[in-house]
Amino acid sequence: AQTVTQSQPEMSVQEAETVTLSCTYDTSESDYYLFWYKQPPSRQMILVIRQEAYKQQNATENRFSVNFQKAAKSFSLKISDSQLGDAAMYFCGANFGNEKLTFGTGTRLTIIP
Amino acid sequence: AAGVIQSPRHLIKEKRETATLKCYPIPRHDTVYWYQQGPGQDPQFLISFYEKMQSDKGSIPDRFSAQQFSDYHSELNMSSLELGDSALYFCASSLGGLAALGEQYFGPGTRLTVT
What angle do CA B63, B64, B67 make, to 5 degrees? Predict the structure, then answer.
């Protein structure tokens, strides 16, 4: 089975601090793509960052970076210098080669001023 | 830049009624995906179309049907609505095989409430 698991239903962080959201997945595919999506109160799904499984280098987008551990099937998101606008539900997602996205159950991130 | 357009944004229906949700992909995008997100849940894949042909099918009830038209817009038809169909329905679009590269753009969603 191809699954994505987020074990942290809720996380909170002080403004300007760093927080890491966890994600694990399971697949027998060797080539796949991993994503983090942000869903603010508007419910819009916004792509935050993506990682190709064949690339060893961790993806980075400004304050957002990932720690991709292929052998451990782990894909965590690190948010540096947290801002109030980062408050949202974060979904880890994967494309296991068939184009559709499979999501985890989400982590609600709260930013404490 | 043009984004994915979904209409209506909000829809209220009664049990056993029919609803039609529309999705207009980004210009030149030929692939459309439908997802259903129930309250407090993650989005679940329903169905997708590539070049007007169904390309993949997920956990879509038999009461639902969908199609993609010649102008690439898509419609999700939902009949015999049940209370459990209340959800946010997302449409996403991509250009051919680029969906795998993360180039799958989501619309704002249609919030369906069944009473």
Answer: 145
Query: How far is it, in rounded angstroms, from Cα A74 to Cα B19?
Result: 40
CB B48, CB B34: distance < 8 Å: yes
Burial bucket for residue A102 (CB in 10 Å: 0-12, 13-18, 19+): buried
3-state secondary structure of A84: helix
Q: Which residue, among A101, A102, A107, A108, would best test binding to B if mutated, counting the most B CBs under 10 Å from its CB?
A: A101
* Cα of B107 to nearest chain A Cα, Å: 7
Q: How far is Cα A105 from Cα A92, in angstroms, rounded to an integer?
A: 8
pLDDT along chain B (115 residues), means of 10: 92 98 94 94 94 91 96 97 97 77 84 98
Q: Is A85 helix (H, G, I), strand (E, B) or coil?
A: helix
Q: How far apart are the first and last CA of chain B?
A: 36
Cis bond leading into B8, ω under 30°?
Answer: yes
Q: Do A50 and B101 touch (CB under 8 A)?
A: yes
Joined tokens for residue B52: 């007007």
